[in-house]
Amino acid sequence: METANETIKQAPLLEARNLTKVYEDGVKALDNLNIKVMPGEIYAMLGGNGAGKTTTINIFLDFIQPTNGNAFINGIDSNSDPLEAKKNVAFVSENVQLYPNFTAMQNIDFFVRLGGKSNYKRSDYENALNRVGLQSEAFDKKLRDFSKGMRQKCGIAIAILKNAPAILLDEPTSGLDPKAGKEFTKLIGELRDEGKAILMSTHDIFRAKEISDHVGILNNGELVAQRTNAELKGVNLEQLYVEYMAGYMEETDQNLVLTNDLN
Amino acid sequence: MFKLIFIKELKEILQSSRFTISFAVCSLLIILSFFMGAQNYLAGKAQYEAAKQENYNQIAANTEWMSVNHSIMLPPQPLMALVTGISNDIGRDIEVRGRGELSAQNTRFNDEPIFAIFRFMDLEFIFGVILSLFAIIFAYDAINGEKVSGTLKLCFSNSVSRASFIAGKLAGSFAGLSVALIIPLLIGCALLPVLGVNLTGDEWLRLGLILISGLAYFGLFLALTIGISAMTNKPSNSFLIGLVVWIFAVLITPRASVLISGRMVEVPNVDEITSEKNRYRFQLFADDRPKMADFSVPEGTEPQQVMQEFSKYMSELSEERAKKTEIFEEKINEQYINKRRQQERLALSLSRISPASVFSIASTELAGTSLGLQNRYMDSAQDYQQVYNDFMTEKTGTGGMTGFRMIISTDDDSGEEPETIDASELPEFEFQKATLSSTASRSLLDLGLLILFNIVFFGGAFFAFLKYDLR
């Protein structure tokens, strides 16, 4: 028999339930998406441009409303109670752009306070920045002089300091050099080990396979494949991804032929 | 949350290079306008005193009051130099006669025509034109710039309400940018007594209200621009829209409203009126000609008495004509003034759709340099004319240099120089400044409109952001 604690532990921290988004111009960005991310798990969403990865994250953050379905953060519907839901999530975007006239410390202080944490000291900020690997001499430099990698480190430091149970990452390693990408992957792994539920959208198949507990392939707003890390052992994920994309392409080609014939 | 965003916005503005440059430029312009205003006032005051003394000297050189030519001048006021309004456009000197129409001559531009082209860099110009443009430069990317850079998304990935975010941003932007204005404004105010311009309590209060209305004007442009930024996705678009709005508000609407009112209410020009008056005067004179020819005296009357009788007869005719002319001119003038005021009222009402016009009207009203200045000056001159007329009647038996006059001089064989008149007996001209209460009641509408514009634009920015696509 399950105990109450085990039930809580097994509840997903991030859940997309029958999530559908159709824009006003009729474009279907998401089609009945179902995803669950448990505590201590990383879920990687793979897919081409326009597959619906960022739309999913935008719905979780209440930047757009779903046409159907729900997005839950720690069991709270992010569209019906966004302020409460967002207390439980941290977000790192593809290209972290903080305030350029602020130093790293000032930016972190602002965003951490905005995240509801006001009891930190400078030493806490320094520890977080050390942890993400930002050189200490950059702590009090203005962000306008930072490289993308350095800004990304600040972004993840903010997420760490917010200490939310769930983390949303929107193509976090895009544009990072291999060393920075590797450091980032290591950090994400550490956060997973701390029990965070991480939903990550990415184009990076190899990193997704390396770090994720679940990989979902999205195509045209539809979750066309979903594999656990165990299922992916010995599987060429790139091949799998290409096959699904190719299947989609063939389908699209067929549709095009059909449309041409009709015309 | 509001406090956090407010402080962030404040810090971000104060640390930006855009602020540093704007602060330097604003400080320079504002302090310069106070300095130049003070210098202009002091120069104007010295010129006024010199002209007054010269007028006094010329009067004092006369030996009889009948020969006196007396002019009054518009005394310079410190606020006229800070918010010039129409003070440089109206005639400053009026030659006073006991009767007849008064006309103000010699505007400041007669002496310094260069200012007619380039105008003055007074507080109204700095707030109305420059600072409103600065508000656009500062705020055009307030919302969409954060969207483009991604900080908006990062902010709203937290438990932040849109209402507190935009309220904090609006308040923070206004507070941050006000610093760039308040510091040089305070320095400018402190500079006035140092430069020898001593304002009365009433004038300080007026200046304070002008500065507050200037800040309100700046605030409404700031809110308007933030609102535009919250309705567009690209900073380049919001800048362009802001600039177009600014051009319409500051440059086009005030001028267009004058043009439209000119077309809607036709006012005869001064030449037409003068011509009509002259026609009437000539007509009266022509009508009197047969009467003049009818003058006769009994035969055998002494030549001296003939002259006296003739003078008396002609004076009577002249007095009668003068009365008729006065009545006619009063009627014509009243019609003209009514038409002109109707046109002005329409122009002012139309122009009030632009906040720039509202600020101009409010600030010039408070400074005492609005359209009312000319009326007040002429009213004061007319009041003085009455006093002068009484004085001259007492001194000469006639009310000054009007009507028919015949001076008979006889040789004085005594060899003594005739005594000059005592010019200090002449009554002093006092310009009736508008009282603070009357100014306040007249500027209340425009101050209220400035507040209303602020509420509308702050509200507009607030509600635009509530619907803004944060992605």
Q: What can you see in these coordinates?
A:
The complex is a heterodimer of chains A (about 260) and B (about 475). With about 260 residues, chain A is α/β, with parallel strands linked by helices. Chain A has helices at about 5-10, 55-60, 80-85, 105-115, 120-130, 150-160, 180-195, 205-210, 230, 235-260; strands at about 15-20, 30-35, 40-45, 70-75, 75, 90, 165-170, 195-200, 215-220, 220-230. Chain A has a single domain, classed as Rossmann fold (3-Layer(aba) Sandwich), CATH 3.40.50. In chain A, the strands form two sheets. Chain A has a six-stranded mixed β-sheet, with helices on both faces. A four-stranded antiparallel β-sheet of chain A has the order 2-1-4-5. In chain A, a hairpin with a 2-residue loop joins strand 4 and strand 5 (about 75). The termini of chain A are far apart. Chain B contains 16 helices and three strands. The model of chain B has no long low-confidence stretch (mean pLDDT about 85). In chain B, strand 2 (about 95) and strand 3 (about 105) form a beta hairpin. Chain B is mainly α and about 475 residues long. Helix content of chain B is about 70%, strand content about 0%. The longest helix of chain B is centred in the last third of the chain and has 49 residues, at about 305-350. The interface of A and B includes residues 58, 61, 91, 99 and 155 of A.
